[in-house]
Amino acid sequence: GDGKTTAIEIAERSSASERGIRILCDFLCVVGFLTKDGSNYKLTPESALFLNKRSPAYLGGSLEFLLSPMLTDGFKDLTGAVRKGGTVASEEGTIAPEHPIWVTFARAMTGMMAMPAQLMANLVDEKADRKLRVLDIAAGHGLYGIAFANKNPQTKVVAVDWPNVLEVARENADKAGFADRYQTIAGSAFDVDYGTGYDLVLLTNFLHHFDPATCETLLRKVHAALANDGRAVILEFVPNEDRISPPETAAFSMVMLGSTPAGDAYTFPELERMCSAAGFARSEIHQLPPSIQQVVISYK
Question: Edge-to-edge strands of the sheet including 198-204?
């Protein structure tokens, strides 16, 4: 991406051997990430979009996070996790309070999360024609709440997460130009006071870390924070009731087995029961193509 196209130039730029770079680049041509014309290598359009650090859609940081020891260590003894029924990496796994992995997540996943965040905002606030108070629980990078603020200038967002994670969310809100419409509440989503009167409460990629009873406890708190006509918006990997399809969403249960004490990929009937037990009147599920995730909207 910086104009270096031959093995010699790339080797000099990266302080590596010419032979090693030549073999690597040829291999990357074979597997479809580069093209070659004579001695010159070039990124494919897809590689330029997703693997160039200058691209807003860069996914390298996301891959570094997903393959980091903090996540992969939970799978070194998968047999132990199966026997135990939860992670053997530590007592709480990645849900330990103020786990540093979530700062890494917040900084690394922006390229991957920008599209589903915008898709979800378009689905939930289609007309963008009224004032909204949005509570973004376990906000992480903050992109989901920011997407609602970006779509609707009448939207104000309150983000909840650990203090060090909220620094990243605040940075992203400032970059997006929403500093005056973006507030934060630092602390555990289970312990802090949310306040009341929210039109929307966002629960994006959060419930899957916990067992159903814990999810119900949180959902009761969410229900109490909503205005009378408010909605909880839940983004999750939602497998079919057979729990083996679609393959991408069903496989997420194994990720939770290896990295959390009791998390899971919940089916829609399971999520619906949790929401009903927490006091919600009804729930509906929506696809979010081309994302493999689904959105569950629960009405107070």
Answer: 182-186, 155-161, 132-137, 198-204, 226-236, 294-299, 282-287
pLDDT digits (tens, 9 = 90+) for 185-214: 999 999 999 999 999 999 999 999 999 999
What confidence score (pLDDT) does residue 97 get? 64
Q: Which residues of 51-88 are buried (b: 16+ CB within 10 A; e: fewer)?
A: beeeeeebbebbeebeeeebbebbbeeeeebeeeebbb
Tokens 């376990």 sit on residue: 138
Average pLDDT, integer, range 258-284: 97
> Is 63-299 in CATH node 3.40.50.150?
yes
Structural domain boundaries in the chain: 7-56, 63-299
| Whole-number pLDDT of residue 287 | 96
Read off the tokens for 121.
């905002």
3-state secondary structure labels for all residues of the chain: CCCCCEHHHHHHHHCCCHHHHHHHHHHHHHCCCEEEECCEEEECHHHHHHCCCCCCCCCHHHHHHHCCHHHHHHHCCHHHHHHHCCCCCCCCHHHCCCCCHHHHHHHHCHHHHHHHHHHHHHHHCCCCCCCEEEEEECCCCCHHHHHHHHHCCCEEEEEEECHHHHHHHHHHHHHHCCHHHEEEEECCCCCCCCCCCEEEEEEECCHHHCCHHHHHHHHHHHHHHEEEEEEEEEEECCCCCCCCCCHHHHCHHHHHHHHCCCCCCCCHHHHHHHHHHCCCCEEEEEECCCCCCEEEEEEC
